[in-house]
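Thread amino acids onto this structure.
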């Protein structure tokens, strides 16, 4: 079975210059001619709609609805106006006519027309920071004007006055206005084709999605409304993560298992459409209802349709970003169980919805991202600007900074660190109390030099001597009994007395060992660095108490207390000179 199917091309802001990544079936000459005719026709319809309805009730209704939604979405807007552009045949300059104001009953003290005219003439965004207006020029606001350009001609300009913001916030608001202009452009084309009911559905769809706090809830709401509106068994929305689509929401379901076979098949279909930068529809529209189509690979869609028993399947990539640099952020897959596929009008309406839903979902999703991810995205944007074809001054500045860093990295110089220092012994040995007792004498103290084996202090021996005398008496007593049993040749008694003699002998030797250790002597030649018991004669000590510390006099080390701000200049293995102020 062939894996080739028909798919409608993406709009210019989705597929780039060609609208899709696949090759066209038309000859080159006919393809260019058809594209040119379509572009001229689309622009003529859009321009005609704007010019014809600028003062009419229908034009005001659409313009006012769009402006109300745009101003409610952006916090801090003081006043906004949507101007419709018409070309003056004599001067070839664009003439602007106010089609909608927000709020409707506001004074005209903040004149936005001059900023809109400047934006239309320059064909670029116009920003006026800290603009003064009102009685006595006492009020201050920022003015932003964003032109809507369709097929290289200015069709409309939206201008608004906002509370003073930073430059980054101004750029963010301009991006929101640019995204909103895609919706306005789509509404114009939709109205020119007499699909007035779609605008109401789209308005309600976006309003309900933007009213929800979390992006996943918004995606479920959008998927459910699309399933109801287009009579689908299931509508799925996936978001792009690391060049792969991850299923994010399914209509009428608050949760699902992302590891299921159904989820994997839907994600494969979304990847298939996103990787080809084209929307894929099964089955092919009937004769007379086909849109301009191109041949793309649809193997994943055919597998999804066969496995899930939904013969009609369509997947549309979702895009965000600017018209010149669109970015695929996700995809929508719609499934029907009937044999009748999607009609041409439904395909055109879905194409319109995909162009508007993408920026809306992407905006809510980015608002939920962590600070770490937002910082990563900002760094990536700076790197793209640095290594891109523009911003020469930024590249020159970066090269200068890199040259300075390289110079500092390889040029040697003197680096000085000032820190408190202490000269101390490389090692110390503690002299502890061997037994519980009392201090009897102290011959030396901290700061004195000692020789190996020299007595430093001693503990009282009275208690230990009495204990030794006790065990000696016990030993003599048992030894006498042993001699008597030996004379009687009582072997059983001899064995018991021999064991008791060994025990008493061990006890006596233990006491003698304690007596020998009551003398605290130096283990090696050195200096007593701590310990002064000269004023604690007779004081009790416990076994294990540290009485003195002795250090050798031929091995020293220097300890520096370097400040944490200077630690970057210190590394293991580096050599330097030590200059001490005093010893």
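Threaded sequence (583 positions):
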């Amino acid at each position: 079975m062939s894996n080739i199917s028909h798919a409608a091309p993406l709009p210019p802001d989705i597929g780039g210059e060609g609208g899709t990544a696949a090759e066209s079936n038309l000859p080159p000459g006919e393809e260019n001619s058809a594209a040119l005719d379509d572009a001229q026709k689309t622009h003529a319809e859009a321009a005609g709609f704007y010019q014809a309805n600028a003062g009419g009730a229908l034009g005001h209704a659409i313009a006012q609805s769009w402006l109300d939604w745009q101003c409610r979405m952006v916090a801090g807007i003081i006043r906004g106006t949507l101007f419709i552009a018409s070309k003056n045949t004599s001067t070839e300059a664009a003439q602007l006519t106010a089609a909608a104001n927000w709020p409707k009953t506001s004074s005209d003290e903040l004149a936005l027309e001059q900023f809109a005219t400047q934006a239309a003439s320059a064909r670029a965004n116009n920003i006026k920071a800290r603009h003064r207006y009102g009685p006595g020029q006492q009020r201050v606001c920022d003015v932003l004007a964003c032109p809507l350009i369709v097929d290289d001609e200015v069709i409309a300009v939206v201008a608004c006055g906002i509370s003073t913001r930073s430059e980054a916030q101004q750029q963010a608001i301009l991006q929101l206005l640019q995204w909103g202009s895609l919706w306005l452009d789509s509404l114009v084309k939709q109205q020119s084709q007499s699909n007035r009911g779609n605008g109401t559905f789209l308005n309600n769809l976006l309003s309900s999605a933007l009213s929800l706090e979390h992006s996943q809830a918004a995606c479920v709401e959008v998927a459910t409304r699309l399933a109801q509106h287009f009579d689908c068994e299931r509508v799925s929305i996936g978001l792009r993560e690391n060049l792969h689509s991850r299923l994010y929401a399914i209509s009428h379901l608050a949760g699902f298992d992302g590891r299921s076979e159904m989820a994997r098949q839907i994600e494969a279909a979304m990847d298939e459409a996103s990787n080809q930068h084209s929307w894929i529809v099964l089955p092919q529209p009937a004769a007379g209802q086909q849109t301009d189509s191109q041949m793309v690979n649809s193997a994943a869609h055919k597998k999804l349709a066969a496995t899930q028993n939904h013969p009609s399947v369509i997947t549309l990539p979702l895009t965000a970003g600017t018209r010149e640099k669109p970015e695929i952020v996700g995809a929508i897959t719609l499934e029907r169980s009937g044999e009748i596929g999607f009609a041409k009008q439904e395909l055109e309406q879905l194409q319109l919805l995909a162009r508007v839903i993408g920026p809306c979902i992407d905006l809510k999703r980015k608002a939920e991202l962590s600070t770490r991810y937002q910082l990563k995205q900002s760094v990536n944007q700076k790197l793209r600007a640095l290594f891109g074809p523009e911003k020469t001054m930024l590249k020159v500045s970066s090269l200068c900074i890199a040259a300075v860093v390289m110079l500092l990295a390889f040029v040697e110089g003197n680096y000085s660190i000032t820190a408190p220092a202490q000269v101390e012994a490389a090692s110390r040995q503690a002299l502890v109390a061997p037994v519980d007792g009392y201090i009897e004498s102290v011959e030396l103290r901290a700061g004195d030099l000692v020789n190996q084996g020299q007595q430093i202090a001693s503990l009282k021996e009275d208690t230990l001597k009495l204990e030794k005398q006790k065990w000696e008496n016990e030993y003599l007593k048992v030894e006498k009994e042993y001699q008597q049993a030996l004379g009687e040749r009582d072997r059983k008694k001899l064995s018991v007395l021999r064991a008791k003699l060994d025990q008493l002998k061990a006890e006596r030797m233990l006491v003698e060992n304690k007596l020998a250790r009551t003398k605290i002597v130096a283990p090696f030649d050195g200096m007593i660095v701590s310990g002064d018991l000269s004023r604690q004669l007779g004081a009790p000590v416990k076994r294990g108490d540290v009485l003195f510390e002795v250090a050798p006099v031929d091995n020293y080390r220097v300890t520096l207390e370097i400040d944490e701000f200077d630690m970057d200049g210190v590394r293991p293995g580096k050599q330097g000179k030590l200059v001490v102020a005093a010893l």
